[in-house]
Amino acid sequence: MQKGKIGISTENIFPIIKKYLYSDHEIFLRELISNAVDATQKLNTLARIGDYKGEVGDTTIRVSVDEEKNTITISDRGIGMTADEIEKYINQVAFSGANEFLEKYKNDANAIIGHFGMGFYSSFMVSEKVEIHTLSHKEGSQAVKWECDGSPEYTIEEIDKKERGTDIVLYIDDENKNFVSKDEINRLLKKYCGFLPVPVAFGKKTEWKDGKEVETDEENIINDTNPLWTQAPSNLKDEDYNKFYRDLYPMAEDPLFNIHLNVDYPFNLTGILYFPKIKNNIEVQRNKIQLYCNQVYVTDSVEGIVPEFLTLLHGVIDSPDIPLNVSRSYLQSDSNVKKISSHITKKVADRLDEIFKTERQSFENKWDDLKIFIEYGMLTDEKFYDRAQKFALLKNTDGKFFTFDEYKNIIKDSQTDKDNQLVYLYATDAQDQFSFIEAAKNKGYDVLLMDGQLDTHYINHLEQKFEGARFVRVDSDVPEKLIPKEEQTELKLTEAEKDNLTTIFSSQVPNMEKANFVVSFEALAADDKPVMITQQEFMRRMKEMSQNGGGPMAFYGEMPDSYNLVVNGNHELIQRVVKDCEEAVGESVSSLRGKMESLESRKSELEKSKEDKKEEEVPQAEKEELEDVEKKVTELRGKKDEALQGFASKNKLVSQLIDLALLSNNMLKGEALNRFVKRSIDLI
Asked: Residues annotated as region Disordered (predicted)?
């Protein structure tokens, strides 16, 4: 028996492994099976080129668990090792500068394993003792057993082993006994080894017999050695891709379509990306792309490895140029990974462009599901935006689709304002904003439907990209002002009538939590609505962005909603309110206003005399008179408002006009809606 110490420059590697790699300890099984795959593929290569003359035979890798002995065994029939090779590959662990490196990457298990080629040593994360039983493929080799108990000391002795290959026997320690479980090993094998290129067997297949599950004699092969992404796209059909998708995501709906990646220059890359059906909650759908290196599972946390917007896609990416055992921070800075990321973006854009050109109707039919991916990509990836301009669509409220250029040509004549800006009108809810949409269409305008969860940000982005253009929501102003033209209609209201109507209408707006209403007047056509409610575009958009993204916009979200109660002074119903008001309280209101104007005039004189004087230079009599005048003006204004509010409260037409405007905006609810219904019956 030979004894020795593992060649390392730190006193004891094993406590470091357990300490720093503990959080990721389940990867031990992936590492050991990956080594077994490598050994098997090397044997197949040697046999293929004639350097191995023996019979290759069955090369299935087998995993077994002994719950009584607390052992897990990984067996392969690959090239095996001689005692000298064990000395070279197992006992000499390159570990120069270890302490400094471990301190730097102490929270990143993969970085440590990958940096030092320590895949085999990950077994000591879960084991109190590890044995290697191995027989080299080389003719005349002697089988040997290597054993180590978690200290730098090891032993090597000759053993009697008939079959070529290697058995790794792990004696699992007390802290990790959960791994000595068929269910747990089965889970890890499915997660990390489901598509390895060499068959991996674990236990026997089962079947239902006499009302219970029993083992058969057939080995349970847990992996697909020839997964779909390794096959030629020309040999595959849609049903093959859909079946593979269902195998990956058993609970998901069928995808919209797929992109088969197959690149061999300037790097190797294969994979299949699927566009899933997704309409809500982006975050739930993330991390559905599985990253592989030569069919060995690496991670499903692909942010920074693939472009951000593609983390919404599902599927598989496989590249030998993506290292198996490195940190994500390394992956994100690796030049090969960056090239791969850029190429995937290009392939996705090319595929979408191809479908748009050859199957436009199908593309339009899928747009409502597709748009979240495309918009997210255009928002977060400048190169993708440049490519996507050709196939990104705008959908109007009639359900018709247009490219950016097509839509611009359609609206440029009718929707260019007096400042020569192109105005894109849009709605976010075709039902709630129906009356505004109809009003805009009656003026010859077209209205886009922008009802996606990213559309608030997307609109802002398009405004930056579209030269000489802006987006205006269809309910943000009256129809005449959505796209300002040179011609203007005259308002048929005096200043006194506007003042009266402001008090009348503002006094009858129902109280709403976190909502303010400002009465304004517009000179609209006589056949336009008498009262409308609009919401100023800037503030509304800021509030929406604060709800979607927070950050610097968050304070807008705390502000109350501000609405304009727009009174069409030229409508006959408004003119009737003016007439009714004049008949009911006109004389008293005019008298009060006359007195107020006289006092306001005197107030102005007193304030003017104070100008350029210090406070002590103003005569006391003038100070007292000014105070008395202000008090009288306030009292008169109160009486005037009281008279107008009294008229308004009794005038059913005023409340009816306000409620109709609220109803058009889906803002009339509860008690206010009930009063409206009763009033409507009375009026009828």
From this structure: 589-629
Binding residue per annotation — 96?
yes
Rounded CA gap, 529 and 509, in Å? 17
Q: How many domains does the chain have?
A: 4
Domain identity same for 355 and 434: no
Tell which residue, 317, 308, 311, 452, has the closest CA to residue 382. 308
**3-state per-residue secondary structure call for 320-352:** CCCCCCCCHHHHHHCHHHHHHHHHHHHHHHHHH
Domain shared by 412 and 349, yes or no: no
Query: 31 labelled as ligand-binding?
Result: yes
Which single residue is written with the structure tokens 């402001």? 502
Residue 596 among known ligand-binding residues: no
Q: Please provide residue 212's backbone torsions phi and psi, each rounded to the nearest 5 degrees.
A: -145, 165
pLDDT of residue 92: 64
Q: Is residue 488 part of a domain?
A: no
Same domain, 404 and 356: no
Work out the average pLDDT over 204-210. Answer: 85
Residue 430 placed within a domain: yes
601 is in an annotated binding site: no
Q: The domain that contains 273 carries what CATH number?
A: 3.30.230.80
Q: What is the CATH number of the domain that holds 583?
A: 1.20.120
- Give me the half-sphere count of Cα atoms (radius 13 Å) on the Cβ side of residue 99: 4
Tell me how far apart the alpha carbons of residues 432 and 438 are, in angstroms, rounded to a whole number. 12
Annotated binding-site residue? 40? no
Residues 6+ apart with CB under 8 A from 223: 189, 193, 194, 195, 196, 199, 200
The parent domain of residue 411 ranges over 392-482
Task: Tell me the per-residue pLDDT of 548-592, one tens digit each, with 9 for 90 and over.
Answer: 555 445 545 567 788 889 999 999 999 999 999 999 999 999 999
Distances (CA, A) of 575 to 496, 501, 528, 581: 13, 10, 14, 10
Parallel, antiparallel, or unpaired: how do β-strands 153-158 and 447-449 relate? unpaired
